[in-house]
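Please check our next protein.
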Amino acid sequence: MIYLNDSHIGEIGVDWRELAGTIRQVLRLYGTEEVAQPLKPYLRFRDPANRIIAMPAFVGGEVEACGIKWIASYPGNPARGLPRAHNTIVLNDPATGEPAACFRSNALNALRTAAVSGVMLDAWAAWRGTPSFSAGIVGFGPIGRAHLEMLDSLFGERLETVRLFDPRGVDLQDFDADMRARTFVCRDWREIYDRSDVFITCTTARERYIDRSPRPGALLLNVSLRDYVPDAVKDVNAVVVDDWTEVCRENTDIERLHLLHGWTRERAVTLKEAVIGGGLARFVPGEPVFFNPMGLAAFDIGVAAHYGRKALQTGVGVRL
């Protein structure tokens, strides 16, 4: 088998268009016999703030891979000088079950997350018919940084400005001069929320803080899933989820809206419907779109398989 870590992923490099293409490949198969994905369990013990999530999946078609993602999230780790999340993925040969690859890579988690956001954003921009837009990101850890890289790569000059806020500070030294010239660091999330066409939450907030209604026509990429006070978004009609059963649990904003305001599966379209089935046409143009992606194991397996193939082609990684 082959072993890959973050340095190997960096050596192979990031092609955001290829990653977005992988997400679309998985979406086309999702809901068919070519994708198997049981509901992911959460392992908790001792400190309930910590969790380890098991995410098994099989994806057929052009991806043809199966395996499991095992990701630990320990909110207290940054205070110890450690990453909050630790991500491991094991791929098996679908024909024999033999282990084929092992990834110890937090980068893959961020890449998958931002690639899914990019696919949703592209569908929203096409539906809205907008030639350009402004974006805002709250939370600039690994997931927030990956989103800025994705925005720069996939949307280029269509991206007018980006506003960022993180109470821990924002470091843009790894981005080129053009991106830095379009990026503004803000003092508060409200400044970003009120002025962004695309508003992206990438936080680890312990309490919900977004307490005002969204800007008309905005796309809310609710990546961190637990940032919105329910009353702030209870009247939003345009809702997109990757999978309702996955996202309506574990104290997500969708679950709170389900319990407090009676939201049901019928209120939302799926990401597959939005991207491939023209599902956004169901919504009234000009209303805000609220996207809640729980994170599908099938996407993680697809992205890992993409890098596994690249590693074999380039000779990157450690053969075990």
